[in-house]
């Protein structure tokens, strides 16, 4: 009998996991470097940090948590609440900003 | 699967769970863990939001200038590497290599303990400089957010050590590698929550640009209104 935990494709090899860790380390160093760059406008800096963090988030969720290879229903269970959380975050920030003016 | 059975009814595992069927064809325990992680993401969202709202409410206490970005970058690196150790532990048990599984599980737990050590050092420094949960709204929202993340990491460490020691009793083996996979999902989740906290709270926060985000968000509300 086949072991099936809802996995569609084969999980990556150890070599792939190590390459991903190297990429994550480089991105983290990139974030650290961007923080100390002078002459960068706050909007650009925010954009870069958010983009780099999003890439790290997606890579860990996709490869280390195997969402890229697992059944789409696992991803849905996580991604849908995550976007609800993002919506709550944006609405609350907007609401409090509006109230405190 | 027997003839005439609905197609969606599938066997989902072997070993102790061999006769366990689900209507989705997916493992219920793994499904439950993903549902929990989704709900936990919604738990951290408002905590991060609360901190963003209160980050300038420092009263007479310390501000975000006290963040030690180099130290936090190192602790972030430690947590990222612990995620690598976790997937290697899972790969080990899925191949039936118990030695490799035990080594990487212990490495994951130890790296988690190093991360907690960094966090305790940071908290001690902050307390010495006057940043406590009672010093300001900034202090309470920041320490509650990062403290609860630290509590999640601590639960993960206990979970990993329990798996490590249970493996010597023979209850954790290749056939039930799902136990390790589920623990791994939890561990990677605390990693991705920290990725968000490090970027949004530490880096962007210390750079002082959330005010602009708030301005833009407020402007959007006024436009809609």
How would you explain this protein's 3D organization?
The complex is a heterodimer of chains A (101) and B (225). By secondary structure, chain A is mostly helical. Chain A folds into two domains: 1-70; 72-101. Chain A has helices at residues 14-36, 42-64, 72-99. In chain A, helix 1 packs antiparallel against helix 2. Chain B is mostly helical and 225 residues long. Chain B is 71% helix and 2% strand. The longest helix of chain B has 31 residues, at 98-128. Chain B starts with 9 loop residues before the first strand and ends with a helix. The model of chain B is unreliable at 1-19 (pLDDT under 50). At the A-B interface, helix 1, helix 2 and helix 3 of A face strand 1, helix 1, helix 2, helix 5 and helix 6 of B.
Summarize this, please?
The complex is a heterodimer of chains A (101) and B (225). Chain A is an all-alpha fold and 101 residues long.
Overall mean confidence score, pLDDT of chain B: 85
Spell out the CATH superfamily of chain B.
Cytochrome c oxidase, subunit III, four-helix bundle
Give the oligomer, counting copies of the same chain as homo and different chains as hetero: heterodimer
Low-confidence stretches of chain A at least 5 residues in length (pLDDT < 50)?
none
Helix content of chain A: over 70%
End-to-end distance of chain A, in Å? 64 Å
What is the overall number of helices of chain B?
A: 6
State the domain count of chain A.
Answer: 2
Q: In the CATH classification, which architecture of chain B applies?
A: Up-down Bundle
Series of secondary-structure elements of chain A, N-terminal to C-terminal: HHH
Instruction: Specify the structural class of chain B.
Output: mainly alpha
The helix-strand sequence of chain B is EEHHHHHH
Question: How would a crystallographer describe the biggest sheet of chain A?
Answer: none
């Amino acid at each position: 009998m086949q072991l099936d935990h809802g996995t569609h494709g084969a999980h990556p090899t150890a070599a792939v996991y190590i390459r991903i860790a190297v990429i994550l380390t480089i991105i983290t160093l990139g974030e650290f470097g961007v923080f100390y760059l002078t002459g960068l406008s706050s909007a650009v800096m925010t954009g870069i940090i958010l983009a780099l963090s999003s890439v790290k988030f997606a890579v860990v969720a996709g490869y280390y948590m195997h969402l890229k290879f697992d059944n789409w229903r696992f991803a849905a269970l996580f991604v849908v609440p995550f976007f609800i959380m993002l919506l709550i975050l944006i609405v609350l920030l907007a609401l409090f900003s509006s109230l405190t003016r | 699967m027997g003839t005439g059975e609905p197609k969606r009814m599938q066997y989902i595992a072997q070993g102790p769970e061999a006769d366990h069927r689900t209507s989705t064809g997916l493992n219920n325990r793994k499904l439950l863990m993903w549902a929990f992680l989704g709900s936990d993401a919604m738990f951290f969202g408002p905590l991060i939001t609360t901190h963003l709202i209160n980050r300038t409410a420092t009263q007479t206490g310390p501000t975000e200038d006290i963040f030690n970005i180099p130290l936090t970058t190192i602790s972030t690196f430690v947590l990222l590497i612990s995620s690598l150790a976790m997937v290697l532990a899972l790969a080990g048990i899925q191949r039936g290599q118990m030695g490799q599984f035990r080594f990487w599980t212990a490495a994951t737990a130890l790296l988690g303990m190093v991360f907690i050590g960094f966090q305790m050092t940071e908290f001690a420094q902050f307390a010495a400089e006057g940043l406590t949960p009672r010093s300001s709204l900034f202090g309470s929202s920041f320490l509650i957010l990062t403290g609860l993340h630290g509590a999640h990491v601590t639960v993960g460490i206990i979970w990993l050590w329990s798996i490590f020691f249970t493996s010597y009793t023979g209850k954790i083996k290749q056939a039930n590698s799902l136990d390790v996979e589920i623990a791994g999902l939890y561990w990677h989740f605390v990693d991705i929550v920290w990725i968000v906290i490090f970027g949004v709270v530490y880096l962007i926060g210390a750079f002082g640009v959330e005010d602009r985000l708030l301005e833009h968000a407020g402007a959007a509300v006024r436009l809609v209104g």
